[in-house]
Amino acid sequence: MSITLTESQEKAFYIISNFFKTDNVILLTGSAGTGKTTLTRYISDHFSEKGLELCAIAPTHKAKHVIETILNKGKFKTIKAFTVASILGKMKEHSYIGTKHYSDPSAKKFNAFTLFILDEVSMVSDQDLKYIINYVNKSNKKLLIIGDSNQIPCPSSKYSDEGEYIRKANSFIFDSEIPNVNLTEIVRQKADSPIIKLACFVRDNLEEEITFSHESGCKHFDYEYKVSHDNIYETFKNLKNLKSTKIICYTNQAVREHNTEVRRILGFSDEKFNKKEILMGYANIGFPELIIENGRDYEIEDVKYVNNKTILEYSGLSGHTVKLRSDRKVVSVFFIDPNKNYEILSELVERADKVNSKHSTSKDYAKYCELKNQILFIEDLYNYEDNIYSETEFKELYPLLFTKIYDIFDSDQKKILNNKLTEKINTDFPNLIENRLDDNKVIGDSEMFSDKFKIIDKDMYYAYALTAHKSQGSTYDNVFSDENDFKKIQNKFNYKLNKMEIRTREKNQLRYVDYTRTKDKLYLFEG
């Protein structure tokens, strides 16, 4: 193998390779820049050469693509990679349009492999991770788990009760009894890299409120990369590789605002789609072969506005036919014009409302998908009291509807919680809670009341800005960090558990993910 390991990586490899001679599951950890990726490739090559059938697993499509690319670089016989949901055979099941509810896991796909490399474990749910570990142990196979406890946990992670307050818990794996090999030596970039120093500073102060206007924060960072809010878009425009440049923030609202401003300064704002624009997949489209993949970037090669598109029994449809190129292939998709096409869009809304109605069936959902999967949208849409809203509009008008169901409902005791949040919802939206609980749909882990009013999940969106959650597992040449948006993460009272939720660590874990996405330059901006 052509990879040269550092002394600490060689020691870790020796421990892991010898461990697998007698045992099954081991954890490889390390913060940003410690060489986990290089060591993982070395381990993969080593066991592939020994004839083991191995595969890679990651929590998201983007993270899967990254680890797949790393492990297969220069290979003729490639290593397969799966998302956690895919290898577990989990399919999106009938629920509300906006609710992500999946089928129970299955071990069928596991049978073809002997060694599994599970990357970005912090984002894997405890339930799925325990299933994978139990399968590996029972079948006497091998599992290498790779992670960084400084990164953000799975969105559905539970809270840890710490006496007077609570906070989001990290994956159980980091505190488990599973053997752990921890890399500490910085190898990915120069030891004096301001980006690595900043990441290490955040890592070492996860529990502290961090600002970059005082000496303790600024001393680790080069002022050259601090830009004012007024200059970020001009700076963005002047960078060489815009395809690998991102603004990373916390909220979807900030993503929308930054994408709008970047498109304006790049001269793209007059048209909805333009040649050389970059779009990102927000859903998986196509089965069994994906046409659009969630988390992947696509460049627009060509775009035409047409008035003669035919879909099923609907003809003369208006919209944009867009030719998209990814690093793999060129595909053509159709974005329908939401300001026209009344007949087909009315039918789509009617089918969505049927899915979202009480006691709807899987057949209703299949009928909705039959039509929806033919046309693409670049924004989430909601239908409330016969008015259609974008997500931004709907959230501004009805923020209380974006409350999670489990914030007011105790699933163990099957009862509605008596707290101020419940009272507020009952006052503003009478019968909303009871109607949801009377429905036969399984409550999703992250389900919100707004889910039952959602009629469209966007398929793609402009790719110049994205949230830190969506960026995890990716790397870019240049990253802009929206510090103002991260400051919105504040402590809040948790009505369900009747305690203050401390969010300092969560905020810093998001920053840590943000800062460690870049391979070259990191720009911080405030104001």
Automatic annotation (TrEMBL):
SMART domains named among the record's database cross-references: AAA (SM00382)
Limits of the AAA+ ATPase domain: 22-184
Protein name: AAA+ ATPase domain-containing protein
